[in-house]
Amino acid sequence: MKRLILALAASVAFAGMSVAQTYPTKPITMIVPFAAGGPTDIVARLVSENMSKTLGQQIVVENVAGAGGTTGITRASQAKPDGYTIMMGHMGTHGAAPALYANLKYDPVKDFEPVGMAAGTPILIVTKKAFPANDMKEFVAYLKANADKVNQAHAGVGAVSHMTCILLNSQIGVKPTAVPYGGTGPALNDLVSGQVDYMCDQIVNLVSQVKAGSIKALAIASAERSPALPDVPTTKEAGLPEYQVAAWNAVFAPKGTPKDVVAKLTSALNTALDDAGTRKRLEDLGGVLPTKDERGGEWLGKFVASEVARWNPVLKASK
Amino acid sequence: MEAFLGNLSLGFGTALTLNNIFFCFIGCMVGTLVGVLPGVGPIATIAMLLPITFGLDPTGALIMLAGIYYGAQYGGSTTAILVNLPGEATSVVTVLDGHQMAKQGRAGVALGIAAIGSFFAGTVATLLIAALGQPLTKLAQLFGPAEYFSLMIMGLVFAVVLARGSILKAICMILAGLLLSTVGTDLETGQERLTLGLQDLSDGIDFAVLAMGIFGFAEIVRNLENPETRDVVQRAVGKLLPGKEDFKQAYRPILRGTFVGAILGILPGNGAVLGPFASYTMEKKLAKDPSRFGRGAIEGVAGPEAANNAGAQTAFIPLLTLGIPPNAVMALMVGAMTIHGIIPGPQVMTKNPDLFWGMIASMWLGNLMLLVINLPLIGLWIRLLKVPYRMMFPAIMIFCCIGIYSVNNSTSDVLFTAFFGLVGYTLLKFGFEPAPMLLGFVLGKLMEEKLRQALILSRGSFMTFVERPVSGVLLAIAVLMLIIALLPSIRKGRDEVFVE
C-alpha cells in the first residue's frame, strides 16, 4: 500500500513537472469568497494584477460570496488541482470557519496547498465620538464598570469585526451587548451617528472616518503603528499587549496541485509583493505585507494551523 | 452661492474633458444594455469591469462606473414595460402600469414618459447633491434602527395600497414575502433558518431569482398557455412619443416622484428601494379615479420612474459625503475608489475636489446622454415587440438564465428561478398578485435586522419605537395610511368589482 502511494506520488510529481514547464497556458481563475469591492477582493485584485504580468497569463478574479466566505472556498477546494483554479483565503475561511460552521466541507489545514501570505490588514479599536473613554486604559475601565450599558457593533456572525471583538472582549473579560448588522457599512453608519458605542474592524474600513474625526480610534492591534494613522498607538503602547490580531489574506491552491506549479505561483506572488507599485497601493490601504520570513507556502501552512488552534477555543466559548 | 457656482464650474470643467465625456458615454451605453438584458444587474457588470478600470485615471473610471449604475436604472424600465420583467427591485412598480400600457399599444408613450421623467428627476437630484449634499447627510444620521423599522412598516402599508384586488389576498402575499426573506443565516446567532439543509440557501434567496421567477418565468408560462391572447403587443403599436395630453397627466406625478425618491434615496440602508413604491401609492391615492391604476395609468409609470432615478442619484450622497455605502452597488463603488487609491470618506470633497464635483457634474451629463440614447431607441424596442412570441420567449429565457447565473456565479440560482416561476404561475391562477409579495420580501430582511437591533439597543423594550420622535411620527403616518386604505373597503367592499 505504502509503495503504491509512493508510486502514485512520484507519478503525480512527474506529471506535475511536465505540466509546470509550460504552466500557465491559459487564464487562471482566482476565487475570492467575498463580494467585489471588499477588503479581501481589493487585495486579491491588486496582487493578481501583478502576478498576471509575471505569469504571462491573466488571473481572472471570480467572486463567489456566501456563508462567511465558506461557499467560495468549498467550491475552490473541490476544483481540479491543476493550478488553473486558485483562491484568496482569509482569516475567517482558513482560521475561524471550523469553529463557526459545524458542517464545514473542507479542512483549512489538510485540504489546501498553501501558496503564500498576500497581505494583512491590522485591526483597529474605535468608539463613537461621544464615548467617555479617550484611551485604552479608560476604555477597559469603563467597559468593566458599565458592561451592561455598553453596545458593541459587528457585521454579522463570522465577520472580521465579530471575531476580533470577541477576542478583545474575552481578553478584557467583559461580555457587552453585541448588535449585529448586515455589513460593515450599516454598522459604521450607526457608530458615526452614535447609536452604538464601539467596534473593532480592519483599518481600511475605518481610516477615513477616524481622520475626519467622526469616530475615535483607541489602538491598533499590530506590532508597529500604521503609516495610515500614525497618531494611533499600538495595543502594546496602549496597555493591552496581548491583543494582536490582523485580518490576513493568503493565496491557496486546492490539495494535489503539482508542487512545481505551486512554486511558480509562490514566486509570482513574491514578485508582486516586491513590486514598488503594488506595495504602495496595498500599504496606502493600511495593509501590512509579509516579511521575508513570512512568505511562501511552508510558513503559511504552519500559520494556518496556529490560527485554527487560536480561534477555536475563543469562538466556542462565546457561543 | 458663489462657492456653489465655483464648485459646479470646477465639476463641469472636469466632466467636460474629452476623455471623461467618452467614459461617461461608455458607462451610460453599457448601463443601458445591462439594464435591458434581464437579470444582468449593475452589480455583476461593475464587478466584471472593475479590473479594466485599473489603468484609467480614477475620475474617468468612477464616472464610467457611476454611468453604468444609473444607466441600468434607465434600461431596467425598458424590460419592465415591454416584457413584464423587473430587473431591479426598483422597477417592480413600473411593471404594474407600464406593461399594461404596452398591452394597450402605448409602449412608446410609457417608455418616453419614463425616459423624460427620469431625466427631469436626475437633473433635480444632481442639483440637490451639489447644493445640499452635506446638510442632508446630517438628516440621514437621525435614522437609527428604530426609525428604520418604523419606515419599513410604512413601506408595508404601501404594499396593501398597491394591490388591485382583495385586500386579504394582498396581506397574505406580503406575509409570504416576509417569510421568504427570513430564509438564510440568522444574523445574530449564525443559525441556518428554513434552508432545508441546502447550502445554496444559506445566504437567503436573491432578489433577482425571486423576481425573475415570479414575474418573468410565470408570465411566459401563462402566455404560452393560450397562444391566441399571448401577451407581447401584437396590436397597433401606436404613438412613439408621449403627446401633450400625456404630459399634462404626467408632470405632477413626476414632480412628486422626484421629491419622494430624492428624500428616500439619501437614507443609508437602501431607502431608495421604497421610492417608487411610495410614489405609486401617493399617485393612486391622489388620483380622481384610482381604479385606472394597474390597468395602464400613465401616472403609475411617470411618478415611480422619476422617484427611481432621483433615488438612484441621491444614493450617492452618503457615499460621497460620508464614505458609507447605502447599498451593494455603492459598496462596489467604494471598492473601486479604494483600488484607485482614493479612500472614500468625508475628506474626498476637500482632498479630491475635482473628482467629487466632476462626478456630480457627470451625473447630469450622463442623464442627458441617457435621454439622447434612449429616445431614439424607443422605435427600435417597439419594433422588437413585433417579433413573433415563439421566437421571443426562448431568447428572453436564455437572457434571464445568463443574468441569474451571473449574479452569484451559481447554477442552483437558475433552478430556484424555475421553481419560483412555477410558484408564480400557480399564484396567478389563484388570483394572487406578486407585487406585494416582492415588496414584503425586499423590506423583510432590513425590517428584521432593524427590529432586532432596535430591541437589542433598548434592552427589549418595544416602547423605543414610540418614544423616539422620528420613529413615532413614522408609525403614526403608517397607521393613518392604513386606515385610509381600509376605510373604502369597509364602506363599499373596496375594489372588489375589479377583481378579475
Kindly summarize this structure in a few lines.
The complex is a heterodimer of chains A (319) and B (500). Chain A has 319 residues and is α/β, with parallel strands linked by helices. Helices cover 47% and strands 19% of the residues of chain A.
Question: Notable features of this structure?
Answer:
A: 319 residues, alpha/beta, D-Maltodextrin-Binding Protein, domain 2, 2 domains, two-stranded parallel sheet, B: two-stranded antiparallel ribbon, globular
Largest interface: pair, residues per side = A-B, 49 and 54 residues
The percent range for helix content of chain B is: over 70%
Give the domain tally of chain B: 1
Overall body shape of chain B? globular
Beta-strand content estimate of chain B = under 5%
Helix content estimate of chain A = 40-55%
Written overview of the protein:
The complex is a heterodimer of chains A (about 325) and B (about 500). In chain A, helix 1 packs across helix 10 (about 260-275) and helix 4 (about 90-100) runs parallel beside helix 12 (about 295-320). In chain A, about 45% of the residues lie in helices and about 20% in strands. In chain A, the strands form 2 sheets. In chain A, strands 1, 2, 3, 4, 7, 8 and 9 form a 7-stranded mixed sheet that branches. In chain A, strands 5-6 form a two-stranded parallel sheet. Chain A has about 325 residues and is of the alpha/beta class. Chain A folds into 2 domains: about 1-120 and about 250-320, Bordetella uptake gene, domain 1 (D-Maltodextrin-Binding Protein, domain 2); about 120-240, Periplasmic binding protein-like II (D-Maltodextrin-Binding Protein, domain 2, 3-Layer(aba) Sandwich), CATH 3.40.190. In chain B, strands 1-2 form a two-stranded antiparallel ribbon. Chain B contains 21 helices and 2 strands. Chain B has one domain (about 1-500). Chain B has helices at about 1-15, 20-35, 40-50, 60-85, 90-105, 105-140, 145-160, 165-180, 205-225, 245-265, 275-285, 300-315, 315-320, 330-340, 350, 355-385, 390-410, 410-430, 435-455, 465, 470-490; strands at about 185, 190-195. Classes of the chains: A alpha/beta (about 325), B mainly alpha (about 500).
